[in-house]
Specification:
Structural class: mainly alpha
Shape: globular
Largest sheet: 2 strands, parallel
Radius of gyration: 19 Å
Mean pLDDT: 89
Number of helices: 8
Number of strands: 2
Amino acid sequence: MKKNQLQTMSNAFRQICAGERDWTALGNFMNYWYAYAKDRRAELIVDPLPAYDETSLYQHRWAVFCAASVEWFCNKYAVPCPSWVHDPNYTLSEPWFFYLHEPVKSRLLQTTPTEFTQRNIFCGDNCYTNKWELAEKYPPLAATPTPSLLSKERI
């Protein structure tokens, strides 16, 4: 990626198709969404995904995931949603569970946001948990020990 180029969702998907680790490319997108280009969010999602090898299940799954992600980001952060995300091709014919262990699958069925489930993706509700909002939500803990930790009975 060039120094002055935004890490758009389109660029992230292009990188995934080119062999970049999927969550590295998406993590770089998140850096721009939550921090580096927070004031340019519409620009980060406006461009449609580039053409990809539709015979590749890997690429198709990530294309659908990226479209669902854009819709989720738009809904969560009140950014106008681009029309390209509603293309019916961005739906999987078979369910994709991020985890195959049965108890986890049950939780994914219950917690995955609608933007993903309507496309047959079951990833849970914390794919885009991020350090910036967690820091705002959970302020640092005080460094003073509690009295029970100081009691002589514990020594």
